[in-house]
Design a protein that fits this description.
Rossmann fold, seven-stranded mixed β-sheet, two-stranded antiparallel ribbon, binds S-adenosylmethionine, SAM-dependent_MTases_sf, PCMT, S-adenosyl-L-methionine
Length: 192
């Protein structure tokens, strides 16, 4: 089985209701759902698409902005070496940290903060996943992306965003490609 097939197999086996306080029948529907505090988890098919776009490797060090329910984090954890995930809402941070630790995701480090500044102490990151809508690519995240790194980030206004794949080559040259249109809750932060 290649990596893409492994990710799809994991996707098909993972029960989304374990990450939310709802029943399995509803969690199985391919739709965005509320996770409390005015936030949502994306539809599973979009989580799968974004995971595949990130092109995770076994030795990847990943930064995730917007831990939310931890559903996306589970994919990052399963298919990379280490995950550093940041959530700005204290209640979601607390709840999801306990949940994922109890589920045995032991390569994930959690932080309660504004993720637009990245996590300098552990930079650079091979992969960066942003799961909230940015008005522009936060410069700190671009700076903390390693050479040959990939970032997936929705960028745009409040109605819809372009789903961007941002690549940094070995010499630091950055290119972006739009992979479609999405609608995320806003990335709220400093963006320096
Ligand atoms: N990936 C999450 C999941 O699987 O449940 C869904 C994320 S939800 C669409 C977006 C999340 O980003 C929310 O939990 C929100 O609080 C968080 N967020 C928004 N701005 C943020 C910021 N500056 N730093 C960290 N988290 C942020």
């Amino acid at each position: 089985m290649d990596r893409k097939e492994q990710i799809i197999e994991y996707f098909n086996s993972l029960d989304r209701s374990l990450f939310m306080d709802i029943n399995k029948d509803l969690a199985d529907v391919d739709t965005a759902l509320p996770i409390g505090y005015g936030q949502t988890v994306s539809q599973p098919s979009l989580v799968l698409e974004m995971t595949l776009l990130l092109d995770l490797r076994e030795d990847s060090k990943v930064l995730e902005i917007g831990t939310g329910s931890g559903y996306q984090t589970a994919f990052l954890s399963k298919f990379s070496k280490t995950v550093f995930t940041i959530e700005r809402i204290r209640e979601l941070y607390d709840k999801t940290k306990i949940r994922l630790e109890n589920m045995g995701f032991d390569n994930v480090y959690f932080k309660h903060e504004d993720g637009t500044m990245g996590w300098k102490k552990f930079a650079p990151f091979d992969r960066i996943m942003v799961t909230a809508a940015a008005r522009f690519i936060p410069p700190s995240l671009l700076e903390q992306l390693a050479p040959n790194g990939i970032m997936v980030i929705p960028v745009g206004g409040s109605n819809y965003q372009e789903l961007l794949v941002v690549k940094k080559d070995s010499e630091g040259k950055v290119s972006t490609e739009c992979k479609g249109y999405v609608k995320f809750v806003p990335l709220i932060g400093k963006y320096e």
